[in-house]
């Protein structure tokens, strides 16, 4: 095992930042700690690095209990969100820092620095100061500086958080490649589900200081085990529904949902969480579809986005460009929707909270 | 009227009246308050001729007083630089009970009149004072001697380095130090290689102010030194002595030297600072 986190607690004054978190990272794995801001994910990372001392729990690195060790002794690499480059040092000096404080031989240091500069593609920038570099370049210097000491574990705090979208995408892909090349056990913190899905081997979803779910990107995306995970991972439509007399209806309509996996013995309110790509929009109801009205069709590059209205419920669907072509979709046109896949949760368990959150995120109106 | 006939006129006539008045007032104020006195000294010195100028600065009492000021200044800078950085580190990085109270105390020397400060030290270190009698039993003289003058100067210059370094330290945060620490640097290495270079400019500025204040200190040093010629008379005390003895030439000459010294240090400081601002490398 590369990293073992066992039952970590951390409290800041009256605020419980980390509330009994446990997870494992296998040797050579790239794991994402994913959660909204304030969920405690960064604190967990800092505890692994030794920058924060947990109130309870243990950390193992390579089978060794390091809970009582200082950051220096743990030999971890840590890349800070805002890079934390030494502003008064050149790129070269920044990268050499870890080796210089270990009093390595000058020749070895020079050689290692040259190798790392090549690795992070910063040839020609050796003598530049951090203030002369772009965000992406600074991030790469920070990474090279961290890799110089050959840490057994690499920890990255929101590594791409401060970069603009295009640089972020490139750097994320590059980091993934680098990880494959170096095969170093890595954990990175992010609030961006796409980033987590794109580059991690495993995702640990964190909410309110607790682990909500651990799994591969596919697991977490397709089989979310809680409403929080479902709503946080990717865009989601929230459809209110009711169970009445053993039948399931979409709220305030007589559209019936046939689902044999649900316990319908008790009448109650439920919520359907449906991803846009799991909603099929058809012109005619060859399949069992719910009638709806097309409110808007937006061009989104490789796909089209539909805003649909089903009774009082607004939902969003996407359609591939190829699928879209050849058909005429217009505003205020009648259509039918089929939910190919959805998740059902009880409305009683804080449904409004989720709804509010989705609204804030702009997923629903 | 045709469309292209519209005459183009500025929306509002730009008036520079306020700007000019403001600049003019500042210049006048500056001339009256700062430049006129400097010119006064300069004129007095020139009027008396170079002979008297050289005579008055080469008198044993004058030379002694400047030497004394020099050593007190050097000591004050040395001690207050170390102590000021320590103070700043403690106040910015540590959290403890009574921190706000102590932080307020740092500014006390700004608030208390130097004469009052000098008097406090007489009460404390004087022959009958609480600590003075203890030192006296070991035959160590603090008041009316060099140690007392150094202590008084340390007191009045205490806030400069600490107050200049604190905001720099606070702004620069803790991440770079954490990074150094994770990269394997010891606390000591982190301080020398990371913390100190980043507070360098605050430190330089604080030291400059400490220097200027030390060579110019009068009140506190006057009270604790007793102003004994050739013994405990600093440059400012010497000037005062010359003045009260109606030896205006001597007083003006010494004043001019002190003024030029302080002024050059400030100018050098500003130049260095300018270069720092221009140079991207330190930005």
CATH topology of the largest domain in chain B: the name is MetI-like fold
Rg of chain B, Cα atoms, Å: 25 Å
Low-confidence stretches of chain A: none
Radius of gyration of chain A from CA coordinates: 25 Å
- How much of the sequence lies in strands of chain B comes to under 5%
**Biggest β-sheet description of chain B:** none
CATH-defined superfamily of the largest domain in chain B: MetI-like
Average pLDDT reading of chain B:
86
Distance between the termini of chain B: 56 Å
Largest binding interface between chains: A-B, 28 and 21 residues
The CATH architecture of the largest domain in chain B would be Orthogonal Bundle
Question: Major beta sheet of chain A, specifics?
Answer: 6 strands, mixed
% residues in beta strands of chain A: 25-35%
Please report the first level of CATH classification, the CATH class of the largest domain in chain B: Mainly Alpha
Report the order of strands and helices of chain B: HHHHHHHHHHHH
Distance between the termini of chain A: 45 Å
Helix fraction of chain B by DSSP (H/I, runs of at least 4): over 70%
Arithmetic mean of pLDDT of chain A:
85
Overview in brief:
Chain A is of the alpha+beta class.
List keywords for this structure.
heterodimer; A: about 375 residues; alpha+beta; five-stranded antiparallel β-sheet; about 30% helix; B: mainly alpha; 2 domains; disordered C terminus
Task: Walk me through this protein's architecture.
The complex is a heterodimer of chains A (365) and B (283). Helices cover 28% and strands 33% of the residues of chain A. Chain A is built from 11 helices and 20 strands. In chain A, the strands form 4 sheets. A 6-stranded mixed beta sheet of chain A has the order 6-7-8-3-9-10, with helices on both faces. A 5-stranded antiparallel beta sheet of chain A has the order 13-12-11-14-20. In chain A, strands 15-19-16-17-18 form a 5-stranded antiparallel beta sheet. Chain A is elongated and about 80 Å long. Chain A starts with a strand and ends with a helix. The model of chain A has no long low-confidence stretch (mean pLDDT 85). Chain B contains 12 helices and no strands. The N and C termini of chain B lie far apart (56 Å). In chain B, helix 5 packs across helix 7 and helix 11 packs antiparallel against helix 12. Chain B has 2 domains: 48 residues; 218 residues, MetI-like (MetI-like fold, Orthogonal Bundle). The chains are: A alpha+beta (365), B mainly alpha (283). At the A-B interface, strand 6, helix 3 and helix 5 of A face helix 8 and helix 9 of B.
């Amino acid at each position: 095992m590369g990293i073992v986190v066992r039952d970590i607690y951390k409290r800041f004054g009256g605020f419980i930042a980390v509330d009994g978190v446990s997870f494992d990272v296998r040797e050579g794995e790239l794991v994402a700690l994913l959660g909204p801001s304030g969920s405690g994910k960064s604190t967990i990372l800092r505890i692994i690095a030794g920058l924060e001392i947990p109130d309870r729990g243990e950390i193992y690195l390579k089978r060794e209990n390091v809970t009582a060790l200082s950051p220096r002794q743990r030999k971890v690499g840590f890349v800070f969100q805002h890079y934390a480059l030494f502003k008064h040092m050149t790129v070269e000096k920044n990268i050499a820092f870890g080796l210089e404080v270990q009093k390595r031989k000058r020749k070895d240091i020079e050689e290692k620095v040259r190798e790392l500069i090549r690795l992070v593609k910063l040839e020609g920038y050796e003598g530049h100061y951090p203030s002369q570099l772009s965000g992406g370049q600074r991030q790469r210097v920070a990474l090279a500086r961290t890799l110089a000491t050959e840490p057994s574990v690499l920890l990255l705090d929101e590594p791409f958080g401060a970069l603009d979208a295009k640089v972020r995408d490139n750097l994320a892909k590059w980091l993934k490649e680098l990880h494959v090349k170096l095969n170093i056990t890595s954990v990175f913190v992010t609030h961006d589900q796409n980033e987590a899905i794109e580059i991690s081997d495993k995702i640990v979803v964190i909410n309110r200081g607790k682990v909500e779910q651990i799994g591969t990107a596919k697991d977490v995306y397709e089989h979310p085990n809680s409403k929080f995970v479902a709503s946080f991972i990717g865009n989601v439509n929230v459809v209110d529904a009711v169970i009445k007399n053993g039948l399931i209806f979409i709220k305030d309509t007589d559209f019936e949902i046939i689902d044999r996996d649900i316990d319908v013995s008790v009448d109650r309110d439920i919520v359907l969480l449906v991803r846009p790509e799991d909603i099929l929009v058809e012109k005619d109801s060859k399949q069992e579809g719910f009638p709806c009205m097309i409110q808007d069709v937006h061009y989104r590059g490789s796909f089209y986005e539909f805003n649909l209205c089903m009774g009082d419920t607004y939902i969003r669907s996407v359609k591939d460009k190829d699928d879209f072509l050849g058909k005429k979709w217009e505003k205020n046109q009648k259509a039918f929707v089929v939910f190919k896949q959805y998740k059902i949760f009880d409305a009683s368990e804080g449904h409004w909270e989720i709804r509010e959150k989705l609204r804030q995120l702009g997923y629903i109106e | 009227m045709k469309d292209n006939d519209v005459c183009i006129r500025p929306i509002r006539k730009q008036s520079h009246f306020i700007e000019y008045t403001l600049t003019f007032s500042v210049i006048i104020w500056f001339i009256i308050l700062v430049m006129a006195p400097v010119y006064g000294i300069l004129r007095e010195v020139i009027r008396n001729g170079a002979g008297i100028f050289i005579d008055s600065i080469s008198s044993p009492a004058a030379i002694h007083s400047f030497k004394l000021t020099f050593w007190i200044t050097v000591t004050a800078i040395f001690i207050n630089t170390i102590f000021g950085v320590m103070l700043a580190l403690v106040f910015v990085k540590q959290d403890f009970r009574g921190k706000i109270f102590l932080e307020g105390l740092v500014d006390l020397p700004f608030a208390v009149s130097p004469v009052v400060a000098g008097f406090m030290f007489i009460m404390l270190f004087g022959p009958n004072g609480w600590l003075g009698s203890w030192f006296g039993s070991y035959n160590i003289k603090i008041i009316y001697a060099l140690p007392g003058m150094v202590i008084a100067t340390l007191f009045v210059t205490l806030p400069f380095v600490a107050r200049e370094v604190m905001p720099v330290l606070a702004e620069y945060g803790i991440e770079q130090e954490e990074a150094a620490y994770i990269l394997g640097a010891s606390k000591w290495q982190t301080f020398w290689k990371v913390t100190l270079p980043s507070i360098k400019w605050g430190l330089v500025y604080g030291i400059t102010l400490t220097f200027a204040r030390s060579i110019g200190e009068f009140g506190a040093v006057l009270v604790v030194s007793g102003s004994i010629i050739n013994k405990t008379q600093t440059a400012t005390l010497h000037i005062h002595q010359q003045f009260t003895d109606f030896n205006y030439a001597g007083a003006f000459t010494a004043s001019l030297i002190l003024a030029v010294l302080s002024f050059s240090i400030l100018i050098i400081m500003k130049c260095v600072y300018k270069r720092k601002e221009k140079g991207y490398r330190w930005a």
